[in-house]
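hey can u check if this looks right to u? its 174 residues, i copy pasted from the old doc so theres a chance i mangled smth
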Amino acid sequence: MLALSPLIKPIPGLMIWTLVSFGLVYWVLKRYAFGPIQRVIDERRERIRESIEDAENARKEARDLLEEHRSLIGQARGQAEEILGEARRVADSMRERVRDETEADRQRRLEETRRQIEAETQRALQQIRSEVAELTLVATAKVTGKVLDDADHRRLIEDAIKDLDFSALEETRT
């Protein structure tokens, strides 16, 4: 038969003491080590589970914040477009108002200039009439050699002015 090695040869006393030692060590480990080790493992498992839940909550919150941020950016862009549109409308309105005011001012100045020209023309025509009347009196006095009375003066002035053609001067002022 085969010779058994002393390491694998069954020795009943050694087997009993090995089982007793194993049972004792098992009982001590179960009593003093397995409970605390299991508790540490359970605590660590709970912390990991909480960390995963916190990470999920943080991810959900980040997603919500991102959506809110995108929504706020969209609103801000919309408001910016509204503000720009309003600013453009105000600028157009102001430009139109300034143009209208400038046009009104130009028309007012043009009318004022026309009135001044008309007044100057009337004054010039009156002055020309006066000078023509004076010249007529001087010429009449020299031609006739006598001094005329007021009635003769008026008649001569009116005849001289009536014969003159002022229509060309009056046409230029209209």
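The chain has three helices and no strands.
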